[in-house]
Inverse folding.
């Protein structure tokens, strides 16, 4: 189908469950083997939990679809064990440029500082990502993936979820304790349960055209308002792997999507944009309509909705797949603790609270971007064009220019899982934010702070050297190690890490980066959630305060 990629075909295998006399029970079933569903399964599988993944197809994404993956998504993929092939294959970029009538009016650098393992963004076709994720799933013995298994009914009571599955060999029944739904924007499971996703449909259409061409453009994001080759509309240019380039053309609401997808209509647009002498091959095309909507509540008893099944935004800003992966990053550690009976089910309600807040923030930003890109009145278009013109000279106008505010991580300042500060701190590492990465050294080997944390609660202590730990701090460390609070491995970051302490990671500072980012005076202590959000911080280590914060962060208070 494509000149640069051939979709793999995954074998349908009849399961023993299909011959059972009654429904076979599984602890967790995930519906949908896209990036979000596989991310959820992978996260649970790495905890050692048994997970069954069901997908009604037997291949990866047809077409490039989602291509922009953010720094935070890459950090999550890194913990899940599949970031390396993504970065090796993808196109790394940090710089975006905005043009108005073919003239550069402003540009931005999404990661201007050093000292981060991951780039601001990579561009990678979704089919590559999904293939890497399938490979990773197959490495985890606790995960089973069943292709050509379509969920056709879902029912639940207080204790169990019951499903009927259709396959090439007929129907069969399953049950599970928890059902994670990741079957996309047109979720069949959501429809079966009589649930709605409500919001706004914007009356405009965009054409996506993936073309294969050799070009010397830098790996940057180029957005052009009212270009000479597409007057009155806008275009977007992104480079992907394999010399594939993503072009977006604003079409207007009156265009026929089926007509616009025909090659005889796409090719003239591409030539007008790239030039008649550019040699290219059309690989894939689609027409999409902006939609910003979400479910009222992401948890429905024992059924948990994630990704586009729970919320949907317009594609500008790369907020779809990136936010869906952050859904599962938030959900899975909470589900694991509930399954282990170390937290009440109310902890799952905080998944709703936190990720519904994030969805609303994404919808707000996506709506603002869409309104700027596609003004709905003469007055708003005049404002938009004046803003772009002023952006060439004035910083205040550059801040108003909006070609799609790019995906970022929600700061959960109001989360009930946070412990409010009682000490004074500088910087951005407030409770509710994702902790920043930093280069460190472990036993003379260079590594990264985020890679040192794993997928559990972590107590992070900053001292000048291990020898500087006070008697009270050593006693607190001993208490935290011995008690049932063993969810908290301890990491000590020092300027000099020559001394070791049993069962504790000792990391050394590199150029003072972590000390600066965490405002880390000697004795400063952070409690980090499994999804790497800061949930508490103090200027000294106190075992009782850590214990209380951990109880709060697991909804046990």
């Amino acid at each position: 189908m494509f000149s640069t990629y051939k979709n793999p075909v995954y074998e349908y295998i009849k399961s023993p469950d299909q011959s059972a006399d009654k429904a076979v029970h599984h602890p967790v079933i995930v519906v949908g083997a896209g990036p979000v569903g596989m991310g959820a399964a992978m996260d649970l599988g790495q905890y050692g939990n048994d997970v069954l993944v069901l997908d009604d197809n037997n291949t990866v994404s047809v077409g490039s679809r989602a291509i922009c993956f953010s720094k935070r998504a890459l950090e999550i993929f890194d913990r899940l064990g599949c970031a390396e092939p993504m970065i090796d294959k993808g196109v790394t970029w940090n710089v975006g440029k905005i043009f108005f009538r073919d003239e550069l009016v402003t540009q931005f650098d999404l990661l201007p500082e050093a000292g981060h393992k991951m780039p601001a963004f990579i561009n990678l076709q979704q089919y590559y990502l999904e293939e890497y994720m399938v490979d990773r799933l197959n490495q985890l013995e606790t995960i089973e993936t069943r292709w050509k298994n379509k969920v056709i009914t879902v029912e639940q009571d207080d204790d169990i979820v019951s499903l009927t599955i259709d396959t090439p060999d007929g129907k069969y029944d399953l049950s599970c304790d928890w059902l994670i739904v990741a079957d996309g924007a047109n979720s069949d499971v959501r429809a079966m349960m009589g649930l709605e996703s409500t919001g706004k449909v914007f009356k405009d259409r965009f054409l996506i055209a993936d073309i294969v061409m050799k070009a010397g453009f830098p790996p940057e994001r180029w957005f052009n308002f009212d270009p000479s080759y597409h007057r009155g509309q806008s275009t977007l240019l992104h480079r992907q792997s394999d010399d594939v380039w993503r072009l977006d053309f604003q079409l207007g609401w009156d265009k026929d999507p089926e007509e616009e997808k025909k090659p005889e209509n796409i090719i003239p647009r591409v030539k007008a944009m790239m030039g008649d002498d550019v040699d290219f091959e059309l690989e894939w095309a689609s027409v999409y309509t902006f939609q910003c909507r979400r479910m009222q509540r992401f948890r429905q008893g024992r059924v948990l909705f994630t990704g586009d099944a729970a919320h949907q935004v317009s594609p500008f800003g790369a907020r779809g797949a990136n936010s869906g992966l952050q859904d599962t990053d938030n959900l899975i550690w909470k589900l694991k603790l509930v399954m282990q009976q170390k937290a009440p089910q109310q902890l799952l309600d905080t998944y709703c609270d936190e990720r519904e807040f994030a969805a609303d923030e994404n919808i707000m930003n996506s709506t603002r971007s869409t309104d700027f890109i596609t003004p709905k009145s003469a007055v708003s278009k005049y404002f938009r064009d004046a803003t772009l013109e002023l952006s060439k000279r004035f910083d205040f106008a550059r801040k108003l220019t909006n070609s799609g505010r790019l995906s970022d991580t929600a700061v959960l300042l109001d989360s009930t899982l946070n412990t409010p500060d009682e000490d004074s701190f500088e910087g951005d590492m407030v409770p509710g934010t994702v902790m920043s990465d930093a280069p460190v050294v472990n036993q003379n080997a260079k590594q990264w702070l985020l890679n040192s944390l794993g997928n559990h609660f972590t107590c992070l202590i900053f001292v000048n050297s291990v020898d500087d730990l006070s008697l009270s701090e050593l006693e607190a460390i001993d208490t935290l190690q011995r008690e049932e609070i063993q969810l908290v491995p301890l990491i000590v970051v020092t300027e000099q890490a020559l001394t070791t302490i049993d069962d504790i990671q000792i990391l050394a500072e590199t150029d003072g980066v972590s000390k600066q980012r965490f405002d880390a005076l000697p004795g400063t202590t952070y409690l980090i959630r499994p999804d790497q959000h800061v949930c508490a911080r103090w200027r000294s280590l106190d075992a009782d305060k850590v214990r209380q914060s951990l109880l709060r962060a697991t909804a046990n208070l």
User: Anything to note?
Assistant: The mean pLDDT is 91. Residues 346-373 form the longest helix (28 residues).
